[in-house]
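Give me structure tokens for this 133-residue protein.
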Amino acid sequence: MLDKTYGMNKISVKLDIYEKIKYIIKIVGFAAKERINMNERKFCFEIFGFDFIVDNNFEVFLLEANTNPGLEESSELIKMLVPRMIDDMLRLTVDKIFDTKYSQDLIVENEDKKVEYKSPYPVKDYNDNENLW
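Here you go.
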């Protein structure tokens, strides 16, 4: 995991910074909800891009939000995240509507008899059932 110790504080990217990012995205979503899908179309979705900066005190700041995010695989990290993000997005939208065979083939039962999704695009330190979209 991406944990670092700075002075007396241990910082976890997943538990500290990522949680702040999700909170900011939630606030932006609430602020913009009246402008999104104004025609109330059913079964539609949109991908937004959010750019953040983290300062040396690990405070997170939103730089911009846009409706045309770049999805090019410009680094090894992005090559791992983008396919998983798109797969998660389609599982939340298209698979829910059409109950696709593809998504059903990736559902497995674990040793505790719980049904889990087995992502074809695993991301290190994240559970396959955890949605990254």
